[in-house]
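Exercise: predict the fold of this chain.
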Amino acid sequence: MIKIVKLQNNSEIIGHVIHEDEKDVLMEDPFSINYIFSPRSERPVIGLLRYMPFAESRIISFQKNNIIVSLDARKSMANYYESVLQSHVKEIDDSIDSELESIAELDDTDDMNTDMIAAMMERLNPNNSMH
């Protein structure tokens, strides 16, 4: 089931709930829901950004005492989430892995190291293009 949880820090997370008990909610492939406000639009644009993109596991446990509310995602949002998950995740993960491996291979004193990290972080910044 695809759910949206709102955490105490006001983050909204969408993902597949694969297990829930009295203490924890386990989500597979969670994404942060980001709202981007623009003076050119009356409504915010919504962007999904992988939650903890550098973690090995795609299953994340959220403690219930950190969750304010947990609700089923409306059908249109669930469809959008699934679309992002299917069409972009592998490409994004492969890109992140490739860039991190390139950075690791560089000499620590190389100025390109800083430039590559900055370029990667710019692509992950929620204020830039997201899916």
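Check your answer against the key: The beta strands are 2-7, 12-20, 24-36, 45-50, 59-63, 67-72.
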